[in-house]
Amino acid sequence: MSAVLELDDVAIRFGGVQAVGGVTRTVDAGDFVGLIGPNGAGKTTLIRIIAGLLRPDRGKVMLGGSDVTGESTSARVRAGLALTHQIVRPFREMTVLDNVILAAGIGYTSGPLRALLHVSRRREAERAMEILGSVGLTGTERRLAGELPLGQLKRLELARALAVDPKIVLLDEPLAGLNHAEASRQVETIMEVHRRGITVVLVEHNLEEVMRVCRRLIVLNNGVVIGEGDPWEVMANPAVQEAYVGSGMMAHAEA
Ligand SMILES: Nc1ncnc2c1ncn2[C@@H]1O[C@H](COP(=O)(O)OP(=O)(O)OP(=O)(O)O)[C@@H](O)[C@H]1O
């Protein structure tokens, strides 16, 4: 197995808070990893460091074997990384189709305008339609993104992530705000993304779905890894249970 993502002693502090306190982990090609932990554990901070939206105080981030620690977010996207939310938040005043075309262009250049000019409209439109079909959004192409209900908007975020043809996608709470049926549907779409050979790192509080789909869990608490491995074994780990109980989130963990 080749490593898609490697973290070597990654740490960052905000004032008195050690948000991430020295994380060393590898994610292999084809993996489906759940990055979990109670509120404030450091999950989003770590994801933002991986994406280049935050610079760590120390440590190294490697993508596909290359050190990208000093690289911009767009350089990391070109190196095969996609992130829902921070990078691919849909433009609400643009059509669904243009949102995906624009995201594809960002895979080539950093600026949105240059991205739109860069793409060959017809070829990219065809590809965008195919991606929209793969996330169950066929028929919505001409609608404004801002008109979509949340469940579809979240699938559009996923489509935009796929448009950069990533090797690895970081999904930061893709199920937040969705009802049970919408969450199941979104999970099916994420599983389809994984079946296409894309490595998935999922940050999610919905532990029922996390346990159902992830092959491996990494549990953070207070910025450090306190458990890792098979989801059921990890959740049976007393240190993990203690972290969730201490945070008042055991109801989630038992779901
Ligand atoms: N920009 C910031 N400035 C100061 N403190 C921050 C900042 N971002 C995060 N923190 C702190 O760092 C710690 C980790 O936060 P982070 O958002 O990464 O946790 P999380 O695991 O994603 O939590 P949640 O599940 O609630 O989203 C928290 O104590 C948080 O208050």
Tell me what the structure shows.
The longest helix has 16 residues, at 180-195. The chain has 11 helices and 10 strands. Helix content is 41%, strand content 24%. β1 and β2 (17-28) form a beta hairpin. Among the domains are: 1-22 and 53-70, no CATH class; 72-205, Rossmann fold, CATH 3.40.50. α3 crosses α5 and α3 (96-106) packs parallel to α6. With 255 residues, the chain is of the alpha/beta class. The strands form 2 sheets. It has a 6-stranded mixed sheet, with helices on both faces. Strands 2-1-4-5 form a 4-stranded antiparallel sheet, with helices on one face. The structure holds adenosine-5'-triphosphate.
Structural features:
255 residues, alpha/beta, Rossmann fold, six-stranded mixed beta sheet, four-stranded antiparallel beta sheet, 24% strand, globular, binds adenosine-5'-triphosphate, ATP-binding, nucleotide-binding
Rg from C-alpha positions? 18 Å
The gross shape turns out to be: globular
CATH superfamily of the domain at 72-205: P-loop containing nucleotide triphosphate hydrolases
Strand order across the largest sheet: 6-7-8-3-9-10
List low-confidence stretches. Answer: none
The amount of beta strand, in percent, is 15-25%
Q: Ligands in the structure?
A: adenosine-5'-triphosphate
- Provide the CATH topology of the domain at 72-205: Rossmann fold
Round the mean pLDDT to the nearest integer and report it.
88
Pfam families: ABC_tran (PF00005), BCA_ABC_TP_C (PF12399)
GO molecular function: ATP binding
Domain ABC transporter: 5-247
InterPro entries: AAA+_ATPase (IPR003593), ABC_AA/LPS_Transport (IPR051120), ABC_transporter-like_ATP-bd (IPR003439), BCA_ABC_TP_C (IPR032823), P-loop_NTPase (IPR027417)
